């Protein structure tokens, strides 16, 4: 049981940590470094496949852990709620990485030209906002899962 809990906590920490580090350190540093916007976009798009892969793997492991503990400790409702938070977060991560990201990559070069097609630029901006919102939602769901974990670990029963 202790090994399963360790693996679960490690996966949740890695997933949450990657979101925090990318969102509040990596992306602002790259875009604020003075690198021209097209090159900064290329740097970020190079990071994204690994970023999403980490989310897929860590999110899956965390979700499986929460489901396992929910089944092992049914009296502790916090595990079930945590599993729901993680399932939604993982679904959003897969959507952002497998659906939104490829669409953004496909139109990035057009949107970053000096005189971009207004319709393509608007589509890029819309998809970028969607990506940011999805990432923020996954961050909040991970924080909720962390709170649910704390509640489940400290609950009596």
Secondary structure layout:
Blueprint lengths: L1 H30 L5 H36 L4 H35 L6 H37 L3
What can you see in these coordinates?
The chain is mainly α. It contains 4 helices and no strands. Helix 1 (2-31) packs antiparallel against helix 4 (118-154).
Give a short overview.
The chain is mainly alpha-helical and 157 residues long. It has helices spanning 2-31, 37-72, 77-111, 118-154.
Write out key terms for the chains shown.
4 helices, elongated, mainly alpha, 0% strand, 157 residues
- Number of E-state strands: 0
Please indicate the percent range of residues in DSSP E strands (runs of 2 or more): under 5%
Count up the domains.
Answer: 1
Indicate the overall shape: elongated
Mean pLDDT: 92
Give the distance, in angstroms, between the N- and C-terminal Cα atoms: 16 Å
Percent helix: over 70%
């Amino acid at each position: 049981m202790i090994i399963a809990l360790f693996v679960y906590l490690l996966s949740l920490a890695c997933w949450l940590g990657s979101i925090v580090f990318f969102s509040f350190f990596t992306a602002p540093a790259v875009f604020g470094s003075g690198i021209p916007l097209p090159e900064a976009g290329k740097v970020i798009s190079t990071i994204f496949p690994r970023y999403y892969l980490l989310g897929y793997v860590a999110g899956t492991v965390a979700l499986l852990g929460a489901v396992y503990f929910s089944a092992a400790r049914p009296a502790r409702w916090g595990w079930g709620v945590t599993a729901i938070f993680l399932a939604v977060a993982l679904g959003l991560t897969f959507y952002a990485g497998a659906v939104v990201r490829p669409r953004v990559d496909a139109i990035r070069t057009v949107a970053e030209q000096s005189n971009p097609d207004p319709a393509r630029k608007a589509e890029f901006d819309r998809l970028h906002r969607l990506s940011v919102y999805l990432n923020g939602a996954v961050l909040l769901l991970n924080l909720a899962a962390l709170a649910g974990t704390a509640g489940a670990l400290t609950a009596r029963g």
